[in-house]
Every structure is written in C-alpha cells, then in structure tokens.
Design goal:
CATH class: Mainly Beta
Number of domains: 1
Distance between the termini: 31 Å
Number of helices: 4
Helix content: 10-25%
Length: 153
C-alpha cells in the first residue's frame, strides 16, 4: 500500500494525490534556489506542470522556459528536463506523470514530514546516493556520470 503522507523529496515538499486515472499527481512546493532533479529524461513517462504560485525556471534540452503562476508546461517523453525556483517566493505546483507508475519515485525517495529534520535529510548524501543508484529504476535517465551529478547536487 502506498503511503500518501506529506513527504520531503530532495528539498521539495511533496503531497501525493490519489488518482483513479492512468496518471500520478503530486502537489509540490519549492523554496528559492531549490533545484529539481538533475537534467534527465523519461522514456515512458510524459510530464505536466501547473504553477499555482510563484514561478519555476525549466531547462528543456538546450532551452530555458520560465513558467509563472497560472501557466503550465507539458514535457513529452524523451525530452531532457530539470527546473529550479529562481524567485524569492516559494513556488507551489502540480506535477502529473502519465502513465501511472512514477509515484513510486516519490514514495521511495520521500522522507515523511513527520520525521525530525526531514527536509535536511532529503538533501543528504545518502538520499542523493540512493537517487543516483536507482535512477533507471524510476525511468530517470541522467545525462552525466554519478560523480559529476553528486558534485552538482
């Protein structure tokens, strides 16, 4: 059974949302300067972001796209992507992966917000090492060798 408690995943507050459709959906919050996952692509998942508050700066292959409150972004399969919050205001967003199955990433990598220092622990070397060792399991194809990614994160 999947635990749908609020989680911290690599410095982002994540609230999984139960869906009966063939997609996974989470509500996320990213504070200023917090980056998303390293540049990566998915071979079977498309993604959709909707900004409820603030803004996110996305990198899509070689292009940067600033998405602001009330705007959305569709990321097709096999497009390399990442994001960060470039503004001093916390951003709130919805993220949808289709088809269903990506929720496993959040529930596996997430640290319950009930735990002490959960945000900090989600950014620990152990969390980053876990991500790098299991990335392909989540259909996450990273661009750089693990040693370069560890230094960036």
């Amino acid at each position: 059974m999947i635990n749908f408690k609020e989680l911290w995943v690599l410095g982002h507050r994540i609230k999984p949302v139960l869906s009966s459709g063939d997609f996974d959906i989470v509500e996320g919050e990213s504070e200023y300067g917090v980056a998303g996952l390293p540049l990566h692509s998915h071979s079977k998942y498309s993604e959709f972001f909707y900004l409820m508050e603030g803004e996110l700066l996305f990198q899509l292959d070689q292009t940067e796209v600033l998405v602001k409150q009330g705007e959305s972004l569709d990321i097709p399969v096999n497009i390399r992507h990442s994001f960060k919050n470039p503004s001093p205001k916390t951003s709130r967003w919805l993220n949808i992966h289709s088809p269903k199955g990506y929720m496993l990433f959040y529930t596996d990598m997430g640290i319950s917000s009930d735990q002490e220092m959960s945000k900090e622990n989600s950014l620990s070397e152990a969390s980053i090492t876990k991500l790098l060792s299991r990335a392909t399991y989540y259909d996450m194809h990273l661009d750089k060798p693990d040693s370069e990614l560890t230094a960036e994160m």
